[in-house]
Write a structure and sequence with these properties.
Length: 294
């Protein structure tokens, strides 16, 4: 169950990253610009190269790098255009379903334990509820389309990542995947308008620090998540993704604390009904995790 512990730790760092993103992205921000900088930071994996033996690259890291950037872009586009309270639970729920279906196609899963199925559903339900906003329940066809596309791409990225670690060592596969992402984002510079605007973004120094913090935490989270993927069995890929509910638990706690102690940095309104729903969600997620550790 080492993959489970590493997965939970990964989602803690991803929660820190999400919190930083939430503060940094106050106001409008071009999704392509944000993806560009995220992909650009992927190039830091070059510092790992001297410490590993690089065998010839297979097709899987190249495919993963392309799909990863496409998934990021569709997600940020959806978050920029539509309500977060709709995008997040829809994306989270659909992604688990797609991972399960793609696992069957890629890895030909035939036997699944009842306990794991119950744990999977508990995590899906808990994840949906903890990110659910009752005041915004209507979803339009365009929102559903982008959420479905983004969920499919992230699910495919999960599967391709597992394929990478089936054909390459962990650090070797990580370097190949992130370098591919690094080179892909440079294609954005072929657009003259994007090239002219990309380096004109002005943020206060504290905002720059928040961006660096968010991306550092995100990089650690992705690294740990990738390692968890390399350790998990093919069926547990869906469960590992469903553990995203743990990320929302961490994010809820961190948001509540910062909103209470530093309301000038981030202000969130927590109603009594909303908090009760979150507590119930946390309880359901805890049941799912408990089933996995029995």
């Amino acid at each position: 169950m080492l993959w489970l512990l590493i997965g939970i730790l990964a989602y803690f760092f991803l929660a820190l990253s999400s919190l930083g993103d939430k503060i940094f992205l106050k106001g409008k921000q071009d999704p392509k610009t944000y993806v560009f900088y995220v992909g650009l930071l992927s190039g830091l994996v070059v510092f790992i190269i001297p410490f590993i033996n690089c065998d010839p690259i297979s097709i899987w890291p190249l495919l993963e790098g392309v799909v990863y950037i496409a998934a990021l872009y569709t997600m940020y586009f959806a978050l920029d255009r539509f309500e977060v309270s709709i995008v997040v639970p829809t994306l989270g729920g659909l992604q688990v379903v797609f991972i399960f279906l793609l696992s069957i196609i890629f890895f030909q899963i035939k036997e699944v334990s009842l306990r794991n199925i119950i744990a999977l559903f508990a995590l899906i339900i808990g994840t949906f509820l903890i990110s659910f906003d009752k005041s915004k329940t209507k979803i339009k066809s365009k929102e559903l389309l982008f959420c479905t596309l983004s969920a499919f791409l992230f699910a495919l990225d999960f599967i391709l990542t597992k394929q990478v670690f089936n054909t390459h060592s962990f650090f070797e596969g990580l370097v190949y995947m992130r370098l591919t992402s690094f080179f892909i984002v440079f294609l954005f510079l072929l657009n003259k308008d994007f090239r002219r605007n990309i380096f004109k973004i002005k943020k206060k120094n504290n905002k720059k620090l928040i961006f660096i913090f968010a991306q550092t935490a995100g990089a650690i989270g992705i690294l740990l998540q990738s390692y968890a993927i390399s350790l998990a069995s093919v069926f547990n890929l869906a469960i590992l993704n469903a553990l995203k509910g743990v990320q929302y638990v961490f994010l809820l706690i961190l948001t509540f604390l910062i909103s209470t102690l530093y309301s000038n940095v981030l202000k969130e309104n927590f109603t009594k009904r909303n908090l009760i729903l979150k507590v119930v969600s946390i309880f359901i997620i805890a049941i799912g995790i408990a089933l996995l550790t029995i």
